[in-house]
């Protein structure tokens, strides 16, 4: 402990260590009956960190070319010691990260944590969610198996429906007219360089904003605290809340290990551009509700293509969702409206996902 | 709440408390080790099979002019086949014993030369000058028909 004190003093003398860590000591977390929802963001962050670590490990053996990608993943799964574990944890944590990001978003929505002054925290979080889905989409292709190949064909073809720039966007994503090794190179670059770079910067912004504005208290609790100040309760972030959070992360790590051991991620068969698509092919669960919606829209809506209308509708809905905090003027009516939209979105996404899962 | 052990004026912790701390800390350490062990094992690549074995055809008679040399594949590593000015075949490992560069035959020196740090070996593989610490491994050469066959010497 003498050494630790010395190091601390040394740093303090040069950087003003105490000043730098001051925010940690004064930061508090509100305690009330909804406090458990505060764990969701931290859990998403933890799963992201797991993705960074396991992703770097996978890079040691992965080869991003059409001739070698499948074989290199096969090699990881069958020959490299604990390779199955690292890859399965990467796949499971990816899915759980998306799940927790969605849960975090809805909890923020229903607890109205997006209210002034936290509008930009919401916007940065929404963009992070889109980036996470971009990670999922680009990473899905990398093993170069049949499912990944066709998922990428369908996904990039949907992009083609965007008016005016759609075709150009598809060519940009595919690196040509077709899904080929060129697409694999692009998706690899996106997945391991472009998206991590942008995500890391935006994540820092997101966390800085959370730090700057403090942790939001739901309006109901806030009103109760204001009416009866002695009821106001908080706990220090460091170490009390952080220790609880670390405990949750520790459990999550155990769950990840168990999932990877009990249900290692499958590899399937190598992609073949000249083989027919397998029957019952579906996208990953978090794209399923959009996929199912597009399937339900008729091919022609008057003079317009059904697909194009669907893609446009998703674009507009996404944009409105991104700007949601700006529609909340602080009066009860707006807030109820937004909560209603949240319930609708949640029910719609859940039921469409179930429908998509059950539909042939 | 004071951290345990900081204030020396406090009475020593009861035995039960120490036991609980020991079990808790030991459990955490053990689980941390169980997370790290797979990662460390994963980083070390599985051994790759050494293709090629101990005998290889390094070339055909007549491929090489007298006083010249060429690199051939010996398993996954390069070998150097030299046809001396005296019309004699020599075969050596082509990996410099200094820092792993690949050596070449110098027809002006009549010796084997490593370009990286100017190491020089004679035609028996002995390190003559420059930094190389050990001789190059030399192989047996047989001419069978028109094929030049190189064999690793059996360890006595």
Short description:
Helix content of chain A is 70%, strand content 3%. Chain A is mainly α and 360 residues long. In chain A, helix 4 packs antiparallel against helix 6, helix 4 packs across helix 12 and helix 6 crosses helix 12.
Describe the structure in your own words.
The complex is a heterodimer of chains A (360) and B (156). With 360 residues, chain A is mainly alpha-helical. In chain A, 70% of the residues lie in helices and 3% in strands. A two-stranded antiparallel ribbon of chain A has the order 1-2. Chain A has a two-stranded antiparallel sheet with strand order 3-4. In chain A, helix 4 packs antiparallel against helix 6 and helix 6 runs antiparallel to helix 7. The radius of gyration of chain A is 23 Å and the shape is globular. The model of chain A has no long low-confidence stretch (mean pLDDT 92). Chain B has 156 residues and is an alpha+beta fold. Chain B contains 1 helix and 10 strands; from the N terminus they run H-E-E-E-E-E-E-E-E-E-E. Chain B starts with 14 loop residues before the first helix and ends in a 5-residue tail after the last strand. At the A-B interface, helix 6 of A face helix 1 of B.
SS-derived structural category of chain A: mainly alpha
Number of helices of chain B: 1
Uncertain regions of chain B: pLDDT < 50 for 5+ in a row? Answer: none
As laid out across the biggest beta sheet of chain A, the strand order is 1-2
Number of helices of chain A: 15
Bin the helical content of chain B. Answer: 10-25%
Which of globular, elongated, flat, extended, rod-shaped describes the shape of chain A? globular
Q: What integer is the average pLDDT of chain A?
A: 92
The helicity of chain A comes to over 70%
| Shape, principal axes of CA atoms of chain B | elongated
Give the strand tally of chain A.
4
Oligomerization status of the protein chains: heterodimer
């Amino acid at each position: 402990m003498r050494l630790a004190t010395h190091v601390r003093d040394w740093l303090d003398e040069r950087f003003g260590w105490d000043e730098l860590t001051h925010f940690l000591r004064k930061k508090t977390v509100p305690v009330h009956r909804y406090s458990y929802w505060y764990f969701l963001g931290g859990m998403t962050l933890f799963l992201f960190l797991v993705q960074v670590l396991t992703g770097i490990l996978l890079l040691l053996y992965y080869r991003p070319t059409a001739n070698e990608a499948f074989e290199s993943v096969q090699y990881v799964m069958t020959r490299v010691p604990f390779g199955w574990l690292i890859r399965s944890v990467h796949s499971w944590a990816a899915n759980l990260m998306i799940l927790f990001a969605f849960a975090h978003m809805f909890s923020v929505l229903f607890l109205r944590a997006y209210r002034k002054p936290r509008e930009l925290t919401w916007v940065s979080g929404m963009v992070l969610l889109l980036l996470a889905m971009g990670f999922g989409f680009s990473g899905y292709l990398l093993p170069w198996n049949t499912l990944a190949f066709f998922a990428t064909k369908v996904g990039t073809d949907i992009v083609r429906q965007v008016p005016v720039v759609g075709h150009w966007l598809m060519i940009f994503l595919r690196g040509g007219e077709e899904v080929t090794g060129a697409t694999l190179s692009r998706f690899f670059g996106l997945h391991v360089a472009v998206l991590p770079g942008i995500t890391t910067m935006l994540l820092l912004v997101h966390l800085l904003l959370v730090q700057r504005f403090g942790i939001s208290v739901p309006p109901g609790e806030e009103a109760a605290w204001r009416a009866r100040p002695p009821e106001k309760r908080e706990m220090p972030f460091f170490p009390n809340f952080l220790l609880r959070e670390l405990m949750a992360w520790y459990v999550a790590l155990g769950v990840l290990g168990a999932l990877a051991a009990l249900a290692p991620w499958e590899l399937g068969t190598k992609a073949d551009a000249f083989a027919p698509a397998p029957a019952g092919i579906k996208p990953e669960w978090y794209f399923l509700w959009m996929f199912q919606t597009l399937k339900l829209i008729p091919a022609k809506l008057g003079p317009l293509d059904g697909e194009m209308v669907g893609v446009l509708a998703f674009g507009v809905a996404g944009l409105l969702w991104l700007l949601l905090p700006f529609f909340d003027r602080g009066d009860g009516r707006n807030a109820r409206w937004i909560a209603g939209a949240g319930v609708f979105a949640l029910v719609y996404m859940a039921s469409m996902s179930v429908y998509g899962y059950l539909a042939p | 709440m004071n951290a345990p052990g900081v204030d020396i004026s406090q009475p020593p912790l009861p035995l039960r408390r120490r036991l609980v701390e020991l079990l808790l800390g030991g459990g955490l350490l053990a689980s941390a080790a169980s997370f790290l062990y797979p990662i460390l094992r994963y980083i070390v690549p599985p051994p790759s099979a050494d293709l090629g074995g101990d005998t290889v055809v390094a070339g055909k008679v007549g491929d090489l002019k007298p006083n010249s040399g060429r690199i051939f594949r010996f398993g996954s590593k390069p070998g150097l086949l030299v046809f001396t000015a005296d019309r004699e075949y020599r075969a050596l490992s082509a990996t410099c014993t200094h820092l792993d560069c690949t050596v070449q035959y110098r027809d002006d020196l009549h010796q084997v030369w490593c370009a990286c740090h100017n190491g020089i070996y004679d035609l028996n593989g002995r390190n003559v000058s420059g930094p190389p610490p050990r001789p190059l491994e030399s192989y047996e050469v047989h001419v069978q028909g028109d094929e030049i066959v190189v064999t690793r010497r059996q360890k006595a």
